[in-house]
Amino acid sequence: MTLTRRTFISTTLATGVILQAPMLLGQTKPRVVIIGGGAGGATVARYLAKDAGQALDITLVEMNPIYTTCFFSNLYLGGFRDFESLQHGYAKLSDMGISVVTDMATGIDTTARTVTTAGGQVLAYDRLVLSPGIDFKEGSVPGWSLADMEIMPHAYKAGPQTQLLKAQVEAMPQGGTFAMIAPPNPYRCPPGPYERISMIAHMLTQMNPTAKILLVDPKDKYSKQALFEEGWQKHYGTMIERVGPDFGGDKAEVRPATMEVVIDGEVTKVDCCNVIPGQIAGQIAATAGVTDDTGWAPVHPDSMKSKLDENIFVLGDSSSQGDMPKSGFSANSQAKVAAMAIRGELTGSKVFPAKYSNTCWSLIAPDDGVKVGASYEPTPEKIASVESFVSATGEDAALRKATYEESLGWYAGITADMFG
Amino acid sequence: MTGWRVIASTLALIAAGPGLAAAEAIGDAQRGADLFQKQCYACHRIGPEAENRVGPRLTGLFGRRAGSVDGFTYSKSMARMGADGLTWTLETLDAYIENPKALISGTRMNYRGLKDDQARADLMAYLRSYSDKPRDIPEAEPTARKTDHDLDSAILAIQGDPEYGAYLSSECTTCHQRDGTDQGIPSITNWPAEDFVVAMHAYKRKLRPHPVMQMMAGRLSDDEIAALAAYFETID
């Protein structure tokens, strides 16, 4: 019901404003179209509306009427959040005058500056913001394709896939084996693979304590590794086995039909397999022609503007910007810089120096939270890390609990910052 | 800022230097005892038999983690600072006594602060005499002469640009909620501008222990902190 009403209103607005504005105001308001309603897209929409709502015509195109955050979706897997707590609607953004279009953007004409949607709408823009998240690199895990995701879920776009993975873990036989094929760099995080391992270990410890976890990893090392390894040993004993590239973790093959993982010729039968493939920018970025050979979209470090199209900005996971991780926190931070730059270009408002930051919290076990973070500034070449910190091994329980509680505060904060 | 850095490195050298017989005395413990009676005794007791009253017992204060006295119920803010790693040293205690709410925003200690540098030094000299075997502790930070680190009044006098502050504040609101909700992350609304500036500089100088805040404040210039304060003054 909400969806229908919102789509109807949005459509009316989208066409209505363009036709009527010249008559009402003497000239059309500059139009900003934003594709993707996550940490990058929702934030840029909200900040543009908040700071220049009267001067701009803002349209947000997102295919899901209700957004499910990837961040904290691991906590749902571990039983620390219910699924609904990850879900957020766009009503408050609509109330701010943003035209929210529940539809999928399928085409972009960068010369005519229009976006076409699956539902047949054509949206004209003066500036386009792409914040579509990730898509998967085909063939990155031998034996697996998107067609297998109901058998071996990726659960790397939060939603039904996350629920499916949880159900599969719960259905594992006693003493069964859970396997994860971890992604190569660079990858979206959250939902971090290693926090996910922790959460699944926590769940299995409760309901299936003789189960095993096989973590197949193509990477030598990963973020917060010492913290995770310390925590796994402390909380989960010998439940988790990690197979790194030294032992063939970079050449694993999966067989969805028979639920097998093959590492270095050795076949392991598994009961649940989470395949997290290699990643590239969300498809629409390639459609817009703003990605390069790497599969990601290069941007100017001081504004998040595409290096390949001066009317397009790319935020979050899809962008290739330098040192910032592909996190929701990063996308939210980048969105504020982009909003300021877009506002400056379209309304002449003051543009201040870009500042970026990121913090990623991970939960290892109940009340055992850790974090890593950094501040960033643009250099001519890239967004460069200025200062960073990471939780230390051996921290006391009070600090770890405070860190976890802080992460809950952050979730409440960033979702309010995105969705109002 | 620069002055402080110089002092900090001097301290480090003193601490590292072998065979230093004794650092300069903190202050006059006798005058401190007097001050304690007048300013602190209504709420605090100190000494071997001291118990918690309105405030926690202050025996053994130096080197103690903030918010850690058994049987005393602390404010959320104080407990959080303790969890974050705040420990009472000459430096942190000095900042706290000078302006309690600048160091621990939500402290229940209803004390406006002691602005006089010498008076604080005297008070700390007295408090220090009730910490464990002070004479046996190497002459590191608890007894090294505390040098003035007050915020330059010129920093407090900077008039910030609220428009710039509005942009900078978007970095704060990723975690701190504008409506003042306090869930695991403290509220930052309704904060007097001067306290805000002092608090941000306390993070910047790593007096306040939180790593995210040390990082965020660490890269803000004096003008940027003033801009944020000017902006926060404009909102409810």
Task: Describe the protein.
The complex is a heterodimer of chains A (420) and B (236). Chain A is α/β, with parallel strands linked by helices and 420 residues long. Helix content of chain A is 31%, strand content 25%. Chain A has helices spanning 2-25, 41-52, 73-77, 91-95, 160-170, 193-207, 225-236, 283-287, 328-347, 397-419; strands at 31-35, 57-62, 67-68, 87-88, 99-102, 105-109, 114-117, 122-124, 127-130, 134-136, 177-181, 212-216, 240-243, 253-255, 260-263, 266-269, 272-275, 279-281, 297-298, 312-314, 319-320, 356-365, 368-378, 383-390. In chain A, the strands form eight sheets. In chain A, strands 5-2-1-9-20 form a five-stranded parallel sheet. A four-stranded parallel sheet of chain A has the order 13-12-11-17, covered by helices on one side. In chain A, β12, α7 (225-236) and β13 form a beta-alpha-beta unit. The model of chain A is unreliable at 1-25 (pLDDT under 50). Chain B folds into two domains: 3-136, Orthogonal Bundle (Cytochrome Bc1 Complex, Chain D, domain 2), CATH 1.10.760.10; 153-234, Cytochrome c-like domain (Cytochrome Bc1 Complex, Chain D, domain 2, Orthogonal Bundle), CATH 1.10.760.10. Chain B starts with a helix and ends with a helix. The interface between A and B is medium-sized, with 37 and 31 residues.
